[in-house]
Amino acid sequence: MSTGHIFFISWVAWAGKWTVIKKLLEKEIENFELALSCKTREPREWEVLWVDYNKLSVDEFKQAIDNNEFLEYNFVHNQNYYGTRFSDVIDNGINKGKIILKEMDILALPKLMYSRHDLKNHYTYIFLDLPIDKIKERMKLRWDCVEWKDFENRIKSAKKETALKNLADHVIDANQSPEKVFEEVFTIISKKI
């Protein structure tokens, strides 16, 4: 059996990541699946627990960190933990020849690159970039969904994330149409598999 591959997809806030992910899943690529993240935050009104992500309490997440269960994890927007379990992408993913799509915060990438350099040939990192002024503009359009504290945290996070985009294998301008962004991501994946 051939080894699979992981496509990590990252983004700054409001860059349209879920639009891209949903379209990729609709393509029905052979052995292609989305690995769910583990998160400590509450679901948003449109999300379904255990379908969109795996919910852990803060104590459960910290215990999983202590047990070395995560390939990567981060404390996102100074509010909640997000992480990727080894079992989801390695044991039940690439070791079984699967093509894994996984969202991952770029702030966790330096640690992954340093601590697991043995995996570098097994993943491709794609970053959806959006200028800070466009993030602010998109957030203001959805102001009813965003509290002021969350707005400030997301802008601070976006600045930190953008500073690391040169670590990504591919950087895509998410200010293009959603169709163009999807086309670029799909082309990257198609060439690799």
Question: TL;DR?
Answer:
By secondary structure, the protein is of the alpha/beta class. The protein is built from 7 helices and 9 strands.
Describe this structure in words.
The protein has 193 residues and is α/β, with parallel strands linked by helices. The protein contains 7 helices and 9 strands; from the N terminus they run βαβββαββαβαβααβα. The strands form 2 sheets. Strands 2-7-1-8-9 form a 5-stranded parallel sheet, covered by helices on one side. Strands 4-3-6-5 form a 4-stranded mixed sheet. A hairpin with a 3-residue loop joins strand 5 and strand 6. Helix 1 packs across helix 7 (178-192). The longest helix is centred in the C-terminal third of the chain and has 16 residues, at 148-163. It starts with a strand and ends with a helix.
Topology:
Blueprint: E1 5-11, H1 17-26, E2 32-34, E3 38-39, E4 54-55, H2 58-66, E5 70-76, E6 80-85, H3 86-91, E7 99-103, H4 109-115, E8 123-129, H5 132-141, H6 148-163, E9 170-173, H7 178-192
Parallel strand pairs: 1-7, 1-8, 2-7, 3-4, 8-9
Antiparallel strand pairs: 3-6, 5-6
Helix pairs in contact: 1-7, 5-6
